Amino acid sequence: MEAINYLNPTAQMILFSALKIGVVFGVVMTAVAYAVLVERKVSAWIQNRVGPNRTAPFFINYLPVIGPLLVRLGIFQPAADGLKFLLKEDFTPSYVRKVYFWLAPAITVIPALLTVAVIPFGSNLGSEKMVIADLNVGILYTFGIVSLGVYGIVLAGYGSNSKYPFLGSIRSTAQMISYEIAMGMSVIPIFILTESLNLSDIIRYQAENGWMILKQPLAFVIFLIASFAETNRLPFDLPESESELVGGYHTEYSSMKFALFFLGEYANMIASAAMMVTLFLGGWTLPFIDALNLPASSLLLGLIHIGVFFAKMAFFMIVFIWVRWMLPRFRYDQLMDLGWRRFIPLALANIVVTALVVALFNN
Amino acid sequence: MPQFTDLFFYALAGLTLLFGFLTVLNPLSRSPVTSAMFLVLTILCMAGLFVLLHAFFLAAVQILVYAGAVMVVFLFVIMLLDLKADQRRHFNKIAVGLGGLSALAIAGTLVASIVTTIPVSQTAGRLAEGETKALGRLLFESHILPFEILSVLLLVAMVGAILITKKDLR
User: Fold this and answer.
1) Which of A40, A290, B22, B129 is least surrounded by CB atoms within 10 angstroms?
2) How far apart are CA A242 and CA A230, in angstroms?
């Protein structure tokens, strides 16, 4: 560890950034795998089933008590699923537009993973800030990258060159653009209050003045519902609605390419959950206890902060999954109506009211 | 690190020009979707150039507005129109002439502004480092009138677009 001190600052920065990127990438990938497991388990409980409870590696019999318990919880299921995706035949239909057909899954996954870069997932470990890139325009970066995520789905529909994927991608384009507007407008009041676009500043403001969800409940509700539409999750999963479009934009995909769409969806869920925690639930802070509310002074506190962040994120992941199995799908015109005629006017009104209150009372 | 940034600049500038060229004249494909995708890549490279200038706000807005919203709508329309017949169509001579003319006009404006601009010193450039607040002040205090005129112009365009799509209003 001593050798690190002899490196120049640039080399240190590159080293630590690479380390953080590697760890965050690994954690997000693992979280995606286990989010799928949670999804299957929660859906099973909601529908009075058992869910995955068989998959077991050969050595598990040697572990008493804990082994069978892990198997019953399906802990090894994600590994088996991943292996299955890798080993299945990757079939490319003859009529597809090959370049776009190959590019689309990658374009879906990359933006989903890039969004995580600006999210402060903890205060600091030692002197190192727990955020990959502490950008001054953090939130705009996120919205920019999220808006690029549409291309994956659009190109999947176009590249597949058949009717169901095309319909799915057309729906998705319209849906994601519409809800991006509502989502972008819903967070403007937060900037009016915090006077910053930097996510670390927004967390600091919340630690000092109380969580944003209490000050901007309307903005939170709009953001939460819009993020369901942005991640193509039920009740807004019209781009892939099985009952009418077979599988929507990923109908023609198989094996690992299909898995990449899956991965993109869950990574998007994780990114939106992380955004909601950062913007509305105070990020890694917990109120009333000073040690948890201020940047960490010791290594242990730093780890606790990261744990707090992950606990809050897990809560939102559960909400995403829970809602999916409780609500029926919206009709397309209802979805558009909700986005354009309810949320956008509400978000605009929220901006005006917040700006007025700040202008009148904060001087 | 100056050479490092220079390297990035030349790489991004070269890619911008290359992708821009491929948008207009792609030897491999005449598909409008491919053109649109190359335009997206051009925009992304331009955002990269803004980042090199420490204009993070402009870079983010460039991606958010042009790559993320405008081009998606373009793609949407192109895919819905299904321009298969148009792919084999010959060049429209008037359109080519008008396009060349506007390209020349833009080039002239650019050259004129480059010639008349006084190079900013390094310290002045640093001030703009992600200063969204400074940009906001500039827009809403010293340049409020042009800003509002532009807003009204956009509003008019929006209302116009809605009017065109509403057939029963005529």
Assistant:
1) A290
2) 18
This prediction's pTM: 0.84
**Structure confidence by residue, pLDDT tens digits, B21-40:** 888 887 777 778 888 888 99
- Confidence band (pLDDT; 50, 70, 90) for A59? confident
Query: What's the sign of the alpha-carbon dihedral B92, B97, B100, B102?
Result: negative
| Pick from A141, A151, A176: CB nearest B60 | A141
> Which residues, numbered 9 to 68 in chain A, qualify as contacts with chain B under a Cβ-Cβ cut-off of 8 Å?
10
Does residue A18 fall inside a structural domain?
no
Q: Is residue A72 in a domain?
A: no
How many domains does chain A fold into?
Answer: 1
A179 touches chain B (CB under 8 A): no
The pLDDT tens digits for A231-263 are 888 788 777 777 777 777 788 888 888 888 888
Return the CATH fold of B2-130.
Four Helix Bundle (Hemerythrin (Met), subunit A) (1.20.120)
CB contact under 8 Å between A136 and B129, yes or no, is yes
Whether A16 contacts A128, CB under 8 Å: yes
Residue A38 falls inside a structural domain:
no
Which residue reads 């999220």 in tokens?
A: A146
Whether A279 is in a domain gets the answer yes
- Which residues in B lie closer than 8 A to residue A140 (C-beta atoms)? 57, 60-61, 64
Question: Which residues of chain A are within 8 Å of residue B57 when distances are taken between CB atoms?
Answer: 136-137, 140
Distances (CA, A) of A50 to A42, A73, B110, B140: 9, 9, 67, 60
- Residue A237: give the domain boundaries: 92-361
